[in-house]
Write a structure and sequence with these properties.
The complex is a heterodimer of chains A (251) and B (296).
Chain A: H1 10-21, H2 25-53, H3 56-65, H4 74-96, H5 101-132, H6 135-139, H7 153-206, H8 210-245
Chain B: E1 3-14, E2 17-28, E3 32-36, H1 43-50, E4 58-63, H2 72-75, E5 78-81, H3 93-103, H4 109-118, H5 132-145, E6 150-154, H6 162-178, E7 182-187, H7 190-193, E8 199-204, E9 207-213, H8 214-218, E10 221-227, H9 228-235, E11 240-246, E12 249-255, H10 259-267, E13 271-274, H11 277-295
Parallel strand pairs in B: 3-7, 3-8, 5-6, 6-7
Antiparallel strand pairs in B: 1-2, 1-4, 8-9, 10-12, 10-13, 11-12
Helix pairs in contact in B: 4-5
Classes of the chains: A mainly alpha (251), B alpha/beta (296).
Chain lengths: 251, 296
């Protein structure tokens, strides 16, 4: 007789999918930190050049400009790509292992949340060091760029975390559209998205409400404005789940 | 006999194409089944339906007494690495074997390691740099070492050389003897696996045209060889599956000969020879095509 082994509990099945997503840490953990490190070193070189080259009286102005650094924005976009790739390749693979779509999606979502925690904590620690060393001794700004808020490290941690969640789950939702409907689905999706964005812009322009939109974000503040992205994140997360429930692994 | 799979009236359409057409069959526990048919006959589609990877257009599927769709209780007991299985591109071979045990309760690590040695699989190679045969070996090893109560092998030996194929057959039989389970082997290369199979399902153009015990099936047809006149006289009025001949000699495959008929043939100086499973299925598949043309 075949040995009867106790079936995995629902929680264990979801955790197995999380483990699967981390089975090869290269793409999700090692490579992003390596790229970030290289970008950081390049920035360090640039800061050093500015610091030594700019005449003393212009230095303050030059350093002032560094707060607009976009050097660390790549990592958010990169994570969206990771989410898209991960879902596209591990979905058919996990189904081959007899995983249900439900367990697969919940496990992958949990993996994305874990990654968001890891990266936002990492970036926050770097931002604290950046502040403490007065911009790595050169007045540089990479992890305390102006978009990451004007508050302390707690608000930055929140903003990083919310941003990562946003890019992971929007990426995941786009990937589920791809897995279920392939290229046609993606085309339809982006056409629809474009229509919604243009429609919203038109509506705001025609009703001359840009001022109100501006003051809404101004009154919400950095933290409040970023918190609103959670609406889209949750929407993307829920949509992704229902899209994937009826997807089939096509070869 | 307990059946692990019960399928009735199963149909799967992809747009205008009917890949599986009103199919009914059942699979009994702890037997080795052959799911045979030509390329594109619907073998993979049936397996995807049985494993909940695809959704039926109509009909019912019961695996271990329940629908397999999104049913973890059922799917945990199934291993199905399909021929076109995609692996994460950045995975190395070792990552597959690191993760597989998490999903199969019956996984035997020692057995897996022995198989990896047998098939000389390079553990550190990136998946996308593997040859077709090495990719097939991964599927074969996961299928064997997972020891799932219901194991599917979909064209398991594409790209494998003769030695590797023999290793697969030997390991499958030996392990099956020690750990009985239900195995469904899908292939269009029938002769090589003929001896492994206990039961045969032949699918053609989405329909099951043969569902029979392998032993019984072998007895259902015989080739009669002799002079053209003698053979023609003997087969007159019988169900002729195939004709061949050179000069004055003829070789004709006929269906169902009783012992009395056999004696009659021997008395008439004719030679009788068994038909291989592959020959038999080719004949039957042709027949069904002809019938299809007539009815259309």
């Amino acid at each position: 007789m075949t040995t009867i082994t106790a079936p995995a509990t629902p929680a264990q099945r979801v955790i197995n999918v999380v483990k699967l997503q981390f089975a090869n840490p290269w793409t999700t953990l090692i490579l992003p930190w390596m790229i970030l490190g290289i970008i950081f070193l390049a920035n360090l070189a640039v800061w050093a050049i500015i610091f030594t080259a700019a005449p003393l009286e212009d230095r303050a102005e030059a350093l002032e400009g560094l707060q607009w650094s976009g050097a660390s924005t790549f990592i958010f976009v990169y994570m969206m790509v990771v989410a898209v790739q991960t879902i596209a390749v591990t979905f058919p693979f996990a189904l081959g292992y007899g995983v249900t779509r439900r367990d697969y999606y919940l496990g992958s979502a949990l993996a994305f949340v874990i990654l968001s925690v890891m990266y936002s904590v990492g970036l926050t620690i770097l931002s604290v060091i950046e502040q403490a060393t007065n911009g790595w001794g050169l007045g540089g700004r990479m992890f305390t760029a102006i978009y990451f808020g004007d508050g302390g490290w707690v608000s930055r941690l929140f903003i990083f975390f919310v941003l990562f969640l946003f890019f992971f789950f929007v990426g995941a939702a786009i990937a589920t559209v791809w897995v279920r409907w392939k290229a046609n689905g993606l085309t339809a999706f982006f056409v629809a998205l474009g229509a919604v964005l243009i429609g919203a812009a038109a509506l705001i322009t025609l009703t001359s409400s840009w001022g109100q939109v501006g003051s809404f974000f101004a009154s919400s503040g950095f933290v409040g404005s970023y918190a609103w992205s959670l609406v889209i994140t949750v929407l993307a997360g829920v949509l992704g789940f229902f899209i994937l429930r009826r997807a089939t692994p096509k070869s | 006999m307990t059946s692990v799979v019960e399928v009735s009236g199963l149909t799967k359409r992809f747009g205008a194409v009917t890949a599986v057409d009103n199919v009914s069959f059942s699979i009994e526990e702890n037997k080795i089944y052959g799911l045979l048919g030509r390329n594109g006959a619907g073998k993979t589609t049936i397996m995807q339906l049985l494993t909940g990877q695809d959704f039926a257009s109509s009909g019912s599927i019961q695996v271990f007494g329940q629908s397999p769709v999104e049913n973890a209780k059922v799917l945990q007991r199934i291993s199905f690495i399909k021929e076109s299985q995609r692996y994460p591109e950045d995975f190395r071979v070792k990552h597959v074997f690191k993760s597989a045990p998490w999903f199969f309760a019956g996984w035997d690590q020692e057995f897996a390691e022995r198989l990896i040695d047998d098939f000389r699989l390079p553990m550190n190679r990136v998946i996308k740099k593997l040859s077709r045969g090495q990719l097939s070996s991964i599927g074969v090893i996961v299928g064997l070492a997972s020891r799932a109560p219901l194991t599917f092998f979909d064209e398991p030996y594409l790209g494998l050389d003769a030695v590797a194929r023999q290793i697969f057959y030997d390991r499958l039989l030996a392990d099956y003897a020690e750990h009985p389970r239900t195995v469904i082997l899908s292939t269009h290369l029938i002769d090589e696996v003929a001896d492994l199979l206990e039961h045969v399902l032949v699918i053609d153009e989405g329909r099951i045209i043969i569902d029979d015990d392998a032993e019984t099936l072998r007895g259902t047809a015989t080739t009669v060889v002799g002079t053209r006149a003698a053979v023609d006289a003997f087969v007159h009025g019988r169900d002729v599956l195939h004709r061949d001949g050179i000069g004055g000699l003829a070789s004709i495959t006929v269906a169902g000969l009783s012992p009395a008929h056999r004696q009659e043939a021997t008395a008439a100086g004719l030679e009788l020879s068994p038909v291989s499973l592959q020959q038999l299925i080719i004949r039957r598949t042709n027949t069904s095509e002809k019938e299809f043309e007539v009815s259309a």
